[in-house]
Amino acid sequence: MTKISKISSISVKERGQTSWLAALFVIISALIAFYIRIRPRDSVFLPNGFVRFSNDPLYHMRIVEVLLHNYPHGMFYNPLTNFPNGAYIHFGPLLDHMIALTALILGLGNPDTGLVNIIGAYFPTVLGALTVIPVYYIGKYLKDRKTGVIAAFLIAIAPGQFLSRSTIIFTDHHVAETLFSSLLMLFFLIALIEAKKRELSLKMLQSKSKEAARPIIFAILAGLMYAAYQLTWPGAPMFGMIIVIFAAVQYTVDHLNNKSTEYLGIIGIITFIAGLLPVIPFIKPDMGFSAYIYSWFHVATALAAIFAFLYMSIVHKVLNDKRLKPIYYPIALIATLIIGLLAIKVISPSIFGSITGISATIFSAKTGGFNTIGEVSSIFYRGGVFTLSSVWYNFATGFFLSLIAMVMLAFSIWKDKKPEELLILVWAFIMLLAIYGQNRFAYYYSINVAVLAGYFAAKVLDMTGWKKIEDACHDKMNSIGKLPGCLSKNVKIAHLTTIFLLLLLVAYPSYSLAMQQSQYTSGANDYWLEALFWMEANTPDPGIDFLKIYDAPEKGEIFDYPDTAYGVMSWWDYGHEIEAIARRLPNANPFQQGIGGRRSNIGEENQPGASTFFTASSEEEATAVLEAIHPDPEKTGARYIMSDIEMATGKFYAMTAWTMDTNNYYIPVQSDQGVVTVPSERYYNSMEAKLHIFDGNGLKHYRMVHESPSTAQSQEAGYKNVYNVLLSGSIKEDNTGYVKIFEYVEGAKITGTAPAGENVTISTIISTSLGRSFMYSQTMTSNGTYSFTVPYSTEGPITGQTQFDVAPTRPYQISYGSVIKEVRVSENDILKGSTIGV
């Protein structure tokens, strides 16, 4: 027994050595990864020192800002978004602390904003480059160094979501998730190999055998990486599930082959204990059983995993002791799982609902509004139609090679029954199911693709003679002088041709896509930046300290906002930009909070929120939505509305999708180019169209206060042309401001008398911040009196209120018959809802 252990130990030690050549390739791959990810750097650092972070990263950088101001204390609850409800921080604190701590060290304890932003901007590129290292070792321990080197290079040049989420300024938790989950699987893989080879057992632990040290150390490291992963993203128990599913299969394989399972139980239990302990201080007991915030869910899943390993070990021992048929083992596990789920359903329907809900969230394709969220729609479906375009975008040929490699792995497992191969196969297969449910998991599956494609390429090289070359030159690997001679002696044209063909098949498509995709990066465009900076400087302070840490309200209560606080209504895409750049309180945000609408079917009540506001068919309906958003009946949920041309055109369908009432906003019509789909009357009656297409003309309580510069790359003029042609309109067919800011006001009430039956019109000319002009007017039929509520002040802004730069150029004119009267309205009249008699 001792002799066998020593032989195994030597074998694993040799397998663990890294030659200088492999190390060189890994370093080069990491540098390539870093270079690709910093390519768009010139477009993200603006001359004024502003860094053009993309949307979710802005939120992280705001959390870092608060963290540095209150270090080491950070936010758990944020009242500055999803107004008037606020929101809990639903991702982990680790990434933000890593950035903050780096800034504190490099800034000698007092980093300035510029340094913090530079560190934050480059942080994802560093994490992306570092991911090359665990991928190399995963490939190496799966098969050999060659596999690891190829896998490392492939992940360095991987396109798609792994690339985009680790590119400069994409300072989000996704790349950290990928790094820590890869390290978790790497260390668990090594612990598994070591424990299996050393035949780790309870007796070895009891005797404190040195042979047990190595697998235990790696199991602890796996647990610590699992903890780091959980403290990056609360959804990390997904990988705990992968390990437990693998273990169930491996226990079954070992039991059916009359092998010991003690090694598996020991490293599994140690991993999950080590993974739970660092997370416990972050558990919020009052959060109940939530998978989105650190709660009892994370304790329960860890304990369940520990119990699973213990239970599977006990069942193995009991069946062996009773000399029962091996086939009873998988039957017992399946029966236990079914009975356990039924028991949970009876005892705690809420926990059962969480389990099934989380499974559905991860593995099932989405419908309704959720299907409009780019990252949570299925990778195989677009608009309900099966497609491989997203697969190619994310993985190129690597995806198809990964499927082939899984089959190859399955045959190898059937033959050799290596647990490390089974772990890789189970991991890859579950992530394949995950990308069917949500394409966001593509950045995880990129790791599997790199490893599996590396495995495929290495197998092909072995079959074409490279294995013999490796064996012949093995002793020369650590000699820079001798290796070239050995290679030149053994390498033939056929070997070089194989490498060339593999590069063409495996690497070139990924590299080509990565270079295309890394030319640019996301972030607020210049139009939005102009509008957001204007809002920060020209609207009232909401009375909330953006650097203060606020306590969450008691359960069932709402946050106590000051009377000066107000919301900004816009589509959820722009919520973080409104908060982080304009320093204002968005109603909706990219966490899909504040959207409103429906979730399952059209029969549900249409909840108030951004979707219901912008699709409202009248001003009165839209205002009712704002009033319903705020729990105080005396207040409305938003004071300002921000719209851009994308909301009015391409993104409008997403708004309707969230309400699940999508019919008749667009209709097919015959044109010179054939049948085309164009906006319909229902679209032009929507609040979004009233605001952006028609400039708010005729609205009583909504006035434009600012518009950003316009762009020629806009569909606005086309939408106006359709309105004029189909609905006999007469509006100017031009492209106006890309972003328009409106203010909801009480409006001044203007009353007077006119002969009954007369059509009375009130109008004025509005000049915008772009210098363009449009007519604002309302018309009604007098019944002897008339009354208009108007939103614009003719006398200019006042101190402490909106410093609007869109305003009338003349007094209001009231006209009927041959009568024309002029009326001036002050800003106080507008804000207080005063009545002005004419």
General description of the model:
The chain has 838 residues and is of the alpha+beta class. It folds into 3 domains: 18-50 and 90-517, no CATH class; 525-744, Rossmann fold, CATH 3.40.50.12610; 745-838, Immunoglobulin-like (Sandwich), CATH 2.60.40. It contains 33 helices and 19 strands. It has a 5-stranded mixed beta sheet with strand order 6-5-7-11-10, sandwiched between helices. Helix 4 crosses helix 5, helix 6 runs parallel beside helix 9 (173-198) and helix 20 runs antiparallel to helix 23. The longest helix has 26 residues, at 173-198. The chain is elongated. The N and C termini lie far apart (105 Å).
Q: What does this entry show, briefly?
A:
It is built from 33 helices and 19 strands. The protein is α+β, with helices and mostly antiparallel strands and 838 residues long.
Strand-helix topology:
Layout: H1 2-16, H2 20-38, H3 55-69, E1 77-78, E2 87-88, H4 94-106, H5 113-130, H6 132-142, H7 145-156, H8 160-164, H9 173-198, H10 202-206, H11 213-230, H12 237-256, H13 262-276, H14 296-321, H15 328-347, H16 349-363, E3 381-382, E4 385-386, H17 389-395, H18 398-416, H19 419-437, H20 442-463, H21 466-473, H22 483-490, H23 493-517, H24 526-538, E5 567-569, H25 575-580, E6 585-586, H26 610-614, H27 619-629, E7 640-644, H28 645-648, H29 652-659, E8 666-671, E9 674-679, H30 681-684, H31 687-693, E10 702-707, H32 716-726, E11 739-744, E12 748-753, E13 759-767, E14 773-781, E15 785-790, E16 807-808, E17 812-816, E18 819-823, H33 827-832, E19 835-837
Parallel strand pairs: 5-6, 5-7, 12-19
Antiparallel strand pairs: 1-2, 3-4, 7-11, 8-9, 10-11, 12-15, 13-14, 13-16, 13-17, 17-18
